[in-house]
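Q: My labmate handed me this sequence with no annotations at all. I'd like to see what the chain might look like in three dimensions before we decide whether it's worth expressing. Could you predict it?
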Amino acid sequence: MRKDEFLQLLRQALAGDVPSGVIEENIRYYDHYISEEVQKGMSEEEVIAEIGDPRLIAHTIEDTTDGTSETGYTDPVDDRSSQSQSQSTYREDSYGSQGNTHTFRLNRWYWKLLAALVIFGIVYLVFMVVGGIFTLLSPLLGPLFVIWIITWIFRMLKRR
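A: Here is what I predict for the chain of 160 residues:
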């Protein structure tokens, strides 16, 4: 794959999912990076093979860009992004009807916060249950300990 093909695929994969400024910034970055590596002696094909699939890179950029929603970004200036968004939110299923799909990106900060809160809640619940059990058993532990000491003393006296 050549540099212009790579950049075009990256642009298409990002269209409608991130703001146009982010697209241009990433296109400039990869254009500059590929040109630098070619100047160092690598071929364009080698550099692009090293970078990887532009769709995977686009997915990573989408996941790390602030301001994108789960269903995509719509740039009011760019009509192509609204077309891309409508195409990405609807799909043709195996029965031939058009269905609405929704993608949950679980690597967002709020999902991580929710997971941390759930884990904290589970740990808190376990401590409360264990503490409750000890609270219920504590009135019995004193008398049981006294009975155990008395039986131990009587056993020691019997051995003599």
